[in-house]
Amino acid sequence: MTSAITVTDLVKTFGGKRTLFGGTSHAVHAVKGVSFELRQNETLAIVGESGSGKSTIARMLVGLETPTSGSIAIGGQSYDQLRAEGSRKFGQMIQYVFQDPVASLNPRKTIDRILDVPLRLLRGYDAATRARRKRDLLDAVQMPKDTLERYPHEFSGGQAQRIAIARALAAEARILVLDEPVSALDVSVQAQVLLLLDDLKRQFDLSYLFISHDLAVVESVSDRVGVMYLGEMVELGRASDLFANPRHAYTRDLISSAPTLAPAHP
Amino acid sequence: MTQALATTEPQVSSARLSSWKLLFNNRLAAGGLVVLVAICLLAALAPLLPIPNPDATFPANRLQPILSEGHLLGTDHLGRDILSRLIWGTQVSIAVGLSATAIAALVGSLIGLVSGYARGVTDNVLMRGIDMLMAFPYILLALAIVAVLGPGLLNALYAIAIVNIPFFARNVRGITIGLANREFVDAARLSGKSHAAILFTEVLPNVLPVIVITMSTTVGWMILETAGLSFLGLGAQPPQSDLGSMLGEGRRLLFNAPHVSIIPGLMIFALVMSINLLGDGVRDVLDPRLRAGDLTRPLAVTRIRRKPVPAPTPAGDAAAILEVRDLETSFQRGRATVPAIRDISFSLDKGECLGLIGESGSGKSVTALSLLGLVASPPGIITGGTVKIEGEDVLALPEGRIRALRGAKVAYVFQDPLTTLHPLYRVGEQIAEAITTHQPVGKAEARRRALALMEQVGIRDAAARIDAYPHEMSGGQRQRIGIAMALANDPDIIIADEPTTALDVTVQARILDLLQDLRKERGLALLLITHDFGVVAQVCDRVAVMKDGEIVEAGATAEVLRHPRHDYTKKLIACVPELGQGAGFLDRVRPLFAGGRP
């Protein structure tokens, strides 16, 4: 298996810059030297608490943040090389699905116009091809055809997340970074979106970097799991091994805290 | 869900209709609109009206009074017809005011958009420039600009436009900063859009309403300022008429021919007043917060309008501390009232924990808030049922007694303590305030009790943390403070609305343990509202499942979890992934949604 993403010693520090009057602002070490690899057709999950740096990694991977140091290679090409070729090339390689689907869709644009942008700018299709692709995409995420003329607020959270996934697929990137894609959704909708992601992965030959704080969700979808704690990846291994034999104290704490359906008291 | 989609179309059109309706509901704004339209029509039709040339002088006919032959509003000191000058002058004033507004809006919004989106150095440079403009007194700056450019209507227009740029720039920048950090902007960047494209096609449409609102409220000002400059002789030059210059020329004749200055003065008043009234009306209609009624002050207690006031039922369950029967709460939508929850009945015994579970929109929070009349009103109305606390019907009590129950007998714990704690007060003070509201104790005693409560809810080093501000604490600690405040007056019932949803799992486990311990120690009854079956399984004795505003199933937690009877409950439970299932979870839920579309 070849690698989709290779990350080596990635560091991101916010602040810590010289200010106008010579002092240094307070530095936050969000990510402290993280290395991992996402293989082709694999789902790698990253779990951790809020503030553990998992979203920062995701945002660096898609180019929304610039790493302080360390290297990233996407699809065999180095990060700097991709950056030099412009944001277009980047978007064709890797796409991102946001946690809050409604916030990630512009409230004043119809779904048609939202889906049009990546097809036009990232793929360069003509109008007829774009119209056909839009129908195919909605079909893939199981949304009705009249979706295109509607505005984002007319959809529920689960439907909006399907549309957001369709937009990510429109770029025809083979790598998707999913940042808490189901955390804002109700359980029954969450299950449907997880099923959809599973189907799409097979259908389009995708690789997922799945970021979540919910261990049970992670276990159901991922091949391998990395555990983030205070900016470091404290444990990385096959999902089944990691949940059966957690080595790090924090992983054990996470697993024991996960709520279960077995009533605590009879 | 497809049904919901099918019905959205008429809603859109009715929303548009209601914008006009809302505007006309505001009598002042409607009056302003009528006056403004009349004035504008008159000014626009000036060339077609049978009125004499406004600049034709006729000294023999000077200073004719109002209603004189051939001159409806009289003549001025050169014998020019005042009505004609007024109509032509109004045209000039409106044109100048509108153009100045347009220029100020265009330049100001552009500066605001760019600096709010680019941030950093660009923002700094642009905003310091704007600050410099603002540092000069308003009218002085306009005077200085006209002094440099020379008097004349066009130069006055430029001066007024420049002076008003900061107003737009600051307003638009503020909104843009908020929008630039929104996820849809990031998403557009990942879709391959350039910065300029994002700014003008993604951000601008969302800023546009603010620009329109600002324009509608400034255009009156601009007309007034044009008139001011013309009054000083720096705007319109003779013989051109303009409301301000007419006022200025008439000033010298104020005592022997007052109508020469009073008539243009009244016109300015009518014009600016109508624009301002309309502008306020437009702002109220366009501003979504005002429109949703968020800024209208809610009543202290939800309005109660129970159709048949229920007959006093014999006390059913003697042990029940809280008994709810057939509760119905509705929301006003236009003229109709739509029930949000119906036929809600449950009871809660002393020391018991009842879980109220459901998905978003199922009405579980409305149920919790209805118990003590906390649903915002308008639009909420309690339309039926009884809520008995220790056998007494709460909804039949006077407002003062309901308020006394809140916090004393029944306390609430909310989802995100960061939004319920006051950011400017120390947490100790807030707990102490909760105590002193209901109990006659001194400051020192209240503080001592607050400290004891903080220790009780497990805040380490409470003596040091009592003077901390909410933002200095972690989410888990803040929720502990929220619980301490709920406990302040030794309540019998705690209603916890998604108390752990905003917290990490490790913290959630500890907060749930705390609630469990408190319940055992104090014999508290706990009504726990959640969407998470895992939480229910851990702490609740009984559970009620809500769907679309109704309780579809209720029973002992273990029983419901093991043998759910209602299809909805079955589906909900099946959809909860559990650790240890692995990839089997997806295979298990797949048949539940087979063939069905969302």
From TrEMBL, chain A:
A GO CC annotation given for this chain: plasma membrane
GO BP: any one term: peptide transport
Main location: membrane
Gene3D superfamilies, A to Z: P-loop containing nucleotide triphosphate hydrolases (3.40.50.300)
Places the protein is found: Cell inner membrane
Keywords (A to Z) from UniProt: ATP-binding, Nucleotide-binding, Transport
InterPro entries: AAA+_ATPase, ABC_transp_ATP-bind, ABC_transporter-like_ATP-bd, ABC_transporter-like_CS, Oligopep_ABC_C, P-loop_NTPase
Keyword Nucleotide-binding: yes
Any coiled-coil regions, as ranges: none
Keyword Phosphoprotein found: no
Membrane protein topology class: Peripheral membrane protein
Domain ABC transporter: 5-255
Cross-referenced PROSITE patterns: ABC_TRANSPORTER_1, ABC_TRANSPORTER_2
GO MF entries: ATP binding; ATP hydrolysis activity
Family: Belongs to the ABC transporter superfamily.
Protein name, UniProt field: ABC transporter ATP-binding protein
Gene source species: Pelagibacterium lacus
TrEMBL record, chain B:
Chain ranges of the ABC transporter domain: 322-573
Keywords of the record: ATP-binding, Cell membrane, Membrane, Nucleotide-binding, Transmembrane, Transmembrane helix, Transport
Subcellular location as annotated: Cell inner membrane; Cell membrane
Residues making up the signal peptide according to the UniProt record: none
Classification via CDD domains: ABC_NikE_OppD_transporters, TM_PBP2
One GO term describing the cellular component: plasma membrane
Transmembrane domains' residue ranges: 28-49, 94-117, 138-163, 207-232, 253-279
GO molecular-function term, one example from the UniProt record: ATP binding
Lineage top rank: taxon: Bacteria
Gene3D superfamilies: MetI-like (1.10.3720.10), P-loop containing nucleotide triphosphate hydrolases (3.40.50.300)
Chain ranges of the ABC transmembrane type-1 domain: 90-279
InterPro entries from the UniProt entry: AAA+_ATPase, ABC_Ni/Peptide_Import, ABC_transporter-like_ATP-bd, ABC_transporter-like_CS, MetI-like, MetI-like_sf, Oligopep_ABC_C, OppC_N
Record-stated family: Belongs to the binding-protein-dependent transport system permease family. Belongs to the ABC transporter superfamily.
Membrane topology: Peripheral membrane protein; Multi-pass membrane protein
GO BP terms: peptide transport; transmembrane transport
Identification of the protein by name: ATP-binding cassette domain-containing protein
Matches recorded under PANTHER family: DIPEPTIDE TRANSPORT ATP-BINDING PROTEIN DPPD, OLIGOPEPTIDE TRANSPORT ATP-BINDING PROTEIN APPD
